[in-house]
Amino acid sequence: MDFTASWRRRAAAPRATARAGIAEPSSLPAPQETGAPEKSSRMPSLSIRARLLSISGLLLVFLAASLALLIHQSARDSQSLAAEARLVSIVRNANLASRHFADLKYWVTDFAVTQLERSQQNADAAKAKLDADLKTIAPLDPAGVAAVGSEVDALSRLTHRAADAYSSDDSAGGNALMAEAKAHVMKVDDEINSIVDRLEQQAVATRDATIRKARRTVDLSIAGGIAALLIALLLTAAIVRSITLPLRRLNRAMAAITHGDLAAEMPPAAAHEIGAMTRTLGMLRDSLIERDRLEAERRRAEAEIRAARDAAEAALAELKATQQQLVVQQKMAALGQLTAGIAHEIKNPLNFINNFATLSVELLDELREMAAAGWATLDVDTRAEIDETTGLLSGNLVKIAEHGARADGIVKSMLLHSRGGSGERQSVDLNALVEEALNLAYHGARAQDQNFNITLERDLDASLKPVELVPQDVTRVFLNLFGNGFYAAYKKSRAAANGYRPTLRVSTRELDDTVEVRVRDNGTGIPAAIRDKLFQPFFTTKPTGEGTGLGLSISYDIVTQQHGGTIEVASEEGEFTEFTVRLPRRRQPATTGSPA
Amino acid sequence: MSVSILIVDDEPDVGELFRQRFRREVRQSAYVLHFAASGEEALTKLEDGVRPQLIVILSDINMPGMDGLTLLRETKQRHPELPVIMVTAYGDEERRRLAKEYGAAEFVTKPVDFDRLKQQLRQFSPSV
Q1: How far apart are CA A194 and CA A188, in angstroms?
Q2: Residue numbers of the domain that contains A499
Q3: Each residue's pLDDT tens digit, A337-393
Q4: N vs C: which end of chain A shows fewer Cβ within 10 Å?
Q5: What pLDDT does residue A587 have?
Q6: Is the alpha carbon torsion for A41, A44, A49, A53 positive or negative?
Q7: What does pTM read for this prediction?
Q8: A130 shares its domain with A197
Q9: Using a CB-CB distance cutoff of 8 angstroms, which residues of chain A are in contact with residue B11?
Q10: Pairwise CB contact (< 8 Å): A408 & B111
Q11: How far apart are the CA of B7 and the nearest CA of chain A, in angstroms?
């Protein structure tokens, strides 16, 4: 049992020690295993073979001890049996003595009466037999035997004297002696009987003792057997347990590792055979952990490379986009400047044209007034001819003034390109500005065409904070976008079936440092082919005279150049067009802007 | 009693335009129009003296040689009381600001609204 206890103590050894013991063979650092590795020699562990040998040895020792005990007991019992047998034979001798005494008694009495030689001889023979019997009894009952001997001697003497008396015809004397002898006979009988009784009692006592001893031996043997069996069972159980328990733990650990659970608890690595298996398993686990670590490292490295590549690609894409935006911006800016420059150059001669046309109309009127005096002197045909010519002339002048005014309008629009930075930036409620522009655009469109109508949807973010912008210019942008939306929706409504309901939706939204305005119409849409020309000056899809092609171009300049925002367009032909304007809350350098 | 107006512009047709626009006033001898094609010429005319009395100079800004703003400054140095009206096709803030700073009486953008101009001129010669 001491062995089991010591084994249990080992089983309860600190885990860290056992883990360190496992990790020892591997060169890997095991961060979770703290504490200096302890040699298993500090906790001596018996090998399984030693355990089995020790239990067999112990059982053999038990067996030998119980055998020796049994042999010893048997020897003692056999001695008791021999003593008992001897007693029994002595008791028989005593009984024989009683019979031989009866013979003796008969023959001495006979001899006393008959004085025959033969009787004397028989009496002597009986006495010899009696003496032999008594001799065997003597060691056990010397006092009794001595008493019997003296009584027998007394009897012999009396019978010899009686014989002498009878032979001398002293029958009275003979009878008296015989009567005396009879008393001795009775004493001898009593004595022999008491001897037999005593011997029988002694034999019974001896037998009882022997039986008791034998019974005790049996009891002892049974108790010893049971004890040995129990001890053997306990020892076997302990040893089996001491083997199966670590085996089971090892088995669990192996199953866990097989299923990929590398963090599974490892049994303590003792010095015995299972400990060796445990250490091997530990090494396997360590190598699996190392493999997993390397795999994870490889994956991480791959992920890093992938992330770096993605970042580089994203940066490149962004760079390309920015470059393209810059190119577009430059192009737009150059076009804007060119437009403004052309406008300036045209403006002066156009002024002269308009001025002189107006003057010429006046001069023509003056000419008519001046010629009124001499008018009557002319004949009818001449007057008619002059009337016709002056009529044509004034008509031409009106046309010149008309087209001059039209050209002037175009030039004014063109000049807006060079107006950048002229307006004052103010902190403005963008929702109110959008609302105002929407009303203006709507009533403007109604004024131009009585039949025009459209559903207006507003989704204005109430949480919109004030934005710094040039209100007139941003209003111009929205007027342009709303006007275009109205135009596209109205154009579709004239061509579409009755179910169509022209709609323009305006929404504002608060972003981080930006506000967003979306203007969406469900009109004709913009063909993909011309989407990238939308913001170019003079690009228009409207019939001649209806649009200058400068609205979106100027809007683009205002949003991107002047306000540093972006303007984008999304459209599906025949379905919708949506412009998205994003304005930074505060002025920042114009770097972005992407016409779609 | 007539008064003089000096018009400075490098465009030759500007003179013709003003003559025609002001033909009635000239016919009625309300104004005498003088023309100069450059700032230098205008200054020379000022030095030589303009008859009858010069009440206002109308000057273009963009001109080869001395431009309108320089002429404005020169004129204001010599004749601080003489009103100068700047007439230009470029109505931008910067020029407007400079003109005001140098002491221009008015800033008129082309195309010129002659009816309005005539009203503005009346304040310099109420007799007309």
Answers
A1: 10
A2: 422-584
A3: 787 788 878 888 888 898 898 899 889 888 888 888 888 888 889 889 988 998 899
A4: N
A5: 65
A6: positive
A7: 0.44
A8: yes
A9: 348, 352
A10: yes
A11: 16
At what angle are helices B93-102 and B68-78 packed, to 10 degrees?
10
Dihedral (C-alpha) A477, A479, A482, A488: value to the nearest 10 degrees? -100
Per the CB < 8 A criterion, the answer to whether A355 and B19 are in contact is no
Nearest Cα neighbor of A475 from A446, A506, A515, A434 is A434
Residues A568 and A579: beta-carbon distance below 8 Å: yes
Give first-to-last CA distance, chain A, whole Å: 91
Q: Does A422 touch chain B (CB under 8 A)?
A: yes
Nearest CA in chain B to A357: B17
Contact: A422, B20; criterion CB under 8 Å: no
**CB-closest option in A344, A359, A419 to B20:** A359
Q: Let me know whether A373 and A234 are in one domain.
A: no
Q: What is the pLDDT of residue B36?
A: 94
Separation of alpha carbons A149 and A141, rounded Å: 12
Compute the C-alpha angle A274/A276/A279, nearest 5°: 110
Q: Given an 8 Å threshold on Cβ–Cβ distance, is B20 in contact with A351?
A: no
Within a domain: A293: yes
Task: Tell me the per-residue pLDDT of A415-452, one tens digit each, with 9 for 90 and over.
Answer: 766 655 456 788 889 999 999 899 888 988 888 888 88
Q: How many structural domains comprise chain A?
A: 3
Burial of A75 from C-beta contacts in 10 A (0-12 / 13-18 / 19+): exposed
Residues A525 and A570 grouped into a single domain: yes
Beta carbons of A361 and A422 less than 8 angstroms apart: no
Which residues on chain B place their C-beta less than 8 Å from a C-beta of chain A? 11, 13, 17, 20-21, 89-90, 92-93, 110-112
pLDDT at A257 > cutoff 60: yes
Residue range A297-311: mean pLDDT, rounded: 95
Q: For B32-85, what is each residue's pLDDT tens digit?
A: 999 999 999 999 999 998 888 899 999 999 888 898 999 999 999 999 999 999
Residue A4: inside a domain:
no
Residue A520 token pair: 């969406």
Q: Does A348 contact B90 at a Cβ distance shorter than 8 Å?
A: no
Tell me, what CATH number does A232's domain have? 1.20.1330
**Same-domain pairing of A228 and A293:** no
- C-alpha–C-alpha distance, residues A158 and A109, integer Å: 10
Closest among A28, A39, A38 to A285, alpha carbons compared: A28
Average pLDDT, chain B: 90
- B61: Cβ contacts below 8 Å, ≥ 6 apart: B67, B68, B69, B86, B87, B88, B90, B95, B99
Q: Which domains does chain B have, with CATH numbers?
A: 3-122 (3.40.50.2300)
